[in-house]
From TrEMBL:
Keywords: Lipoprotein, Signal. The keyword Lyase does not apply. Residues 1-24 form the signal peptide. This is Outer membrane lipoprotein-sorting protein. It holds the Pfam family DUF1329. InterPro entries: DUF1329. It comes from Marinobacter nauticus.
Length: 462
């Protein structure tokens, strides 16, 4: 992929950002650490002193034997790995320094059913060479605009592989790395989401989803972004009361000057309408109000309602390399427990994470008064998120359940899970083991008219 530095300035003018960049990137000498003592995406290449986190040696870039290509449910590349030990409510104090408040709360809330099976740590994240090359250039050129409203000087890779500046600026950089992380170029899949009630009952909402990650457009550059990070389409297929509906999203790079653009198609009215409430804490009906608009993808959207602080790096147990829970043919009834996922199908490992805390600004409104992010230092996926109510009580515990998609390659979540500790219910996004296939990744670059409101209506009425 070509990376044209002149495109940065054209992109900055095209976006017409109201605020100026707040600081420059790192020096070229500092950026040269990428691929040396740091991985190409900015994490520490060496293992930890105790030997419980291994060195990164290139990640997982080749599929195991028998894998036939994108869209096939993934074959577990580590079938012989065994559980090293299991953390439960009765022994959690022994592992306290490696647990988050949210995980501790899950163990205490569901002491007889929730547990953490810990496996050996495998650092499987990897990116294509062109993403690594762009990341190195972003390290020098990328800048945050204003109070984290947007970016300039970044395209086709992680914007901030090497954190720098104040703790507030580092926090912004971590979140921007999450928002723009590598997840391929184009992807489609059919999957279901469920809201599980206190008695274990649930109803599936099944949809066909398509996304084009414009930030990684191999035929473009920053000047071509037109303030859009990615395009997203979702067509609801069941249950019958929702079937035929659709939603279109243009996820903007600067959501202050141009908030997220969204349109919905109502099958009964056969009309496309603007969707005005697709940000912040707007409730998501299909999630039975267990997920807000900015909970989707663990976190998305504008950061302006919170004060942000970087709290450093920790070693904690997080979900990782979760292949068993995505195996084709596994019944949803086996995956979904009454209060949480079946722990026997999950895999947890010790990894380094960046910790970021967001506290609601005085005078701003959001149902979450505080949020604490735990972001995988390798992949920049937010894998755990603790969310507090206005009284300061831990309310919701969100988990991204990731694995390496070796056809990309890269680590991304299999399922996103939202636990409401007060209501004792939970919500799951991404179920597809009962489908004939899983995510299909391609390098196709669609015509952007494909993601237009007019196209949404034409495709919905077919």
């Amino acid at each position: 992929m070509r990376y044209n530095k002149n495109a940065f300035f054209g992109g900055l003018l095209a976006l017409s950002f109201a605020a100026a960049p707040v600081h420059a990137g790192v020096s070229a000498a500092e950026a040269n650490r990428l691929g040396q003592d740091l991985t190409p995406f900015g994490s520490i290449k060496a293992g930890n002193e105790a030997g419980t986190i291994p060195a990164w040696t290139g990640g997982l870039t080749e599929p195991p034997a028998g894998y036939e290509g994108s869209g096939q449910h993934h074959i577990n590349p580590f079938p012989d790995d065994q559980v090293l030990f299991t953390i439960t409510a009765s022994n959690m104090e022994q592992y306290d320094e490696y647990l988050t408040d949210g995980v501790r709360a899950m163990l205490r809330t569901y002491p007889t059913t929730f547990r953490i099976p810990v496996y050996q740590s495998r650092r499987t994240h990897a990116v294509p060479d062109w993403v690594a090359e762009n990341t190195r250039k972003n390290a020098v050129n990328a800048e945050i605009v204003g109070q984290a409203e947007g970016l300039s000087g970044a395209f086709g890779g992680y914007p901030f592989p090497i954190l720098h500046g104040t703790d507030e600026e580092k926090a912004w950089q971590v979140v921007w790395n999450h928002l723009t992380r590598w997840r391929g170029i184009s992807v489609t899949r059919r999957s279901s989401e469920v809201a599980v009630q206190t008695n274990g009952d649930y109803g599936l909402v099944t949809s066909q989803q398509e996304a084009f990650f414009n930030f990684y457009n191999p035929e473009g550059g920053e000047a071509d972004l037109d303030n859009v990070i990615f395009y997203y389409l979702s067509f609801t297929q069941s249950p019958p009361r929702l079937a035929g509906g659709a939603i279109l999203i243009h996820e903007t790079l600067n959501q202050i000057i141009n908030p997220r653009n969204g349109w919905g198609y109502n099958a009964g009215q056969r009309r496309v309408r603007r969707a005005p409430n697709l940000g912040y804490d707007s409730p998501i009906a299909a999630a039975d109000n267990l997920r807000t608009a900015d909970d989707t993808d663990i976190f998305n959207g504008a950061m302006d309602r919170y004060n942000w602080n970087y709290e450093g790096m920790r070693e904690i147990y997080i979900p990782y390399n979760n292949y068993r829970i995505g195996e084709r043919g596994t019944p949803y009834s086996e995956i979904l427990g009454i209060s949480h996922l079946n722990p026997d199908l999950t895999r947890w490992e010790l990894h380094r994470v960046h910790v970021v805390e967001a506290t609601l600004k005085e005078g701003e409104r959001h149902i979450y008064g505080k949020r604490r992010f735990y972001v995988d230092a390798d992949s920049w996926n937010t894998v755990l998120l603790d969310q507090y109510d206005g009284r300061g009580e831990l309310w919701r515990v969100t988990m991204g359940i990731p694995k390496n998609y070796y056809e990309l390659p890269g680590v991304w979540t299999v399922l996103d899970v939202y636990h409401d500790l007060q209501a004792r219910r939970y919500h799951v996004l991404g179920l597809d083991t009962e489908e004939s296939g899983t995510r299909v990744f391609t390098d196709d670059v669609p015509n952007k008219r494909y993601f237009s409101p007019a196209s949404l209506r034409r495709r919905s009425v077919r």
